[in-house]
Specification:
alpha+beta; globular; 311 residues; 2 domains
């Protein structure tokens, strides 16, 4: 089974043909004039309706931000170091797909200049969609990993599509998120929502810029498969680290609460993937912070990814 989700194709409605006509008697002119007035009034009403249809849509056809409570964010951010070290990269029940070092010819590092600190910081680019269950699964280890380098000041809650395989996976959304770090820059794009008001296609949320489109074109299967994780154009994962089935039927609070149990298959999948994402970030940011990058769990991930950190 593929580890990526595809954008569903739009469905168009059939066009109506012209109404049939039939012969009839010629009407007096006063009736014709009266009919013209009625038609004019009807056209005016049509123009009003057309104008209203082009105004910004209202709920439920617009995305609304559902902020994750601080208690949940804190639980995820405070997974004990002992859990990361105990798990390492071991996930026997839910095999984890590692990130791959980029080998594309001519690829350039993705860094962003930070004027406030006068330095360049590696960019972590996530290309996802809220409806996609594989993207939903991948956000969990990514949020864990990024919480080791900075702080999510604002992040939303989301559920994957109720009609796709692995339906209704509890997750986060990076749409309208706010993350701060002195080590790394997060650039997330949530391409589509999980809201499907027409039954044909999901709402468009965010559009990648030129640099992000280039990363998608270079490393993703296509622009309509999700997710893609790109760490500074040096480490990439096209798809999810593990199958979403390990998260099925659980709420965000239940998933977060399980992450303190290193023997749990859920914890092993999420934390193994988080250690590998952490190792890839450490490899491009100069192994900072040292307490994270030289921890036992991350060193195991280094070995799994073929990274040799400086002594």
């Amino acid at each position: 089974m593929s580890s990526t989700d595809f954008e569903p194709a739009p469905v168009s409605a059939p066009e109506a043909g012209p109404a049939p006509t039939s012969p009839g008697r010629r009407l007096p002119r006063r009736y014709v004039a009266f009919g013209v007035i009625i038609v004019a009034i009807a056209l005016l009403g049509t123009l009003v309706l057309v104008r209203d249809n082009y105004s910004p849509p209202s709920s439920p056809t617009t995305e609304t931000f559902n902020a994750a409570p601080s208690s949940l964010v804190n639980t995820v951010a405070s997974v004990p170091q002992s859990v990361y070290d105990a798990v390492g990269v071991s996930s026997p029940d839910s095999p984890v797909t590692p990130l791959q070092a980029t080998t594309k010819a001519g690829n350039t590092p993705m860094w962003e200049a930070t004027v406030t600190r006068g330095q360049r910081e590696p960019v972590v680019f996530f290309y996802g969609a809220e409806f996609a269950p594989y993207a939903a699964a991948q956000r969990w280890p990514l949020v864990l990993a990024l919480s080791r380098f900075g702080t999510f000041r604002r992040i939303g809650l989301a559920q994957s599509s109720t009609t796709a395989a692995f339906a209704n996976i509890s997750t986060f959304t990076f749409y309208d998120t706010y993350y701060t770090s002195k080590y790394v820059v997060l650039e997330p794009i949530e391409r589509y929502s999980s809201l499907n008001p027409t039954g044909a296609r999901y709402l468009s949320l965010q559009t990648p810029d030129g640099r992000q489109r280039s990363a998608v074109a270079t490393y993703a299967s296509s622009a309509t498969t999700f997710p893609l994780l790109d760490v500074a154009n040096r480490w990439v994962l096209n798809g999810a680290s593990f199958a979403p089935s390990v998260l099925t039927g659980l709420s965000q609070d239940q998933i977060a609460g399980d992450l303190s149990a290193p023997a749990s298959p859920l914890t092993q999948a999420v934390v193994s993937a988080a250690n590998e994402i952490t190792a890839s970030i450490c490899a491009v940011d100069g192994q900072k912070p040292g307490g994270v990058c030289y921890s036992r769990g991350v060193l195991e991930a280094d070995a799994a990814l073929g990274i040799t950190p400086p002594a």
